[in-house]
Amino acid sequence: MEKVLVSSCLLGQPVRYDGQAQRLNDPFISQLCEQQRVVSFCPEVAGGLPTPRDAAEILMSQIITVTGVDVSDEFARGAKLALAHCLASNIRFALLKESSPSCGRNTIYDGSFTGNKVAGMGWTAKLLEQNGIRVFSEEQIPALSKALRSL
């Protein structure tokens, strides 16, 4: 059975930058959990960042916190660890948190820390996609379900 890498915050783990979770209450995700097909992962924590931590956004080719600290190395490390985990476990699908500088699938914040979103991908989502792992956001659960059923 196919396993799915899922952002830890979407599973209720308080790992977001603000120390909160963003638990999904979705029957399909609950079913995957019951079937032990979910692999929880937070690239930001895996990359060495604490919880809570300053908000960060992608600004050109770096990831900068609201206080001006460059956390690109930690984000890059987390993305590489997510990819390594997927490759080692033969995971071909990921469900990641939309708009995150790590996990955003379709949108990210624009780097101005004003709440504006733009089309784009977080670093982990982009690296996974570049390596053949299909990435979905929590806004695309029906598409993930369909992709898994089509196997």
UniProtKB/TrEMBL annotation:
PANTHER family: HYPOTHETICAL CYTOSOLIC PROTEIN, INNER MEMBRANE PROTEIN. It comes from Pseudoalteromonas aurantia 208. Pfam families: 2-thiour_desulf (PF04463). It comes from the Bacteria. This is DUF523 domain-containing protein.
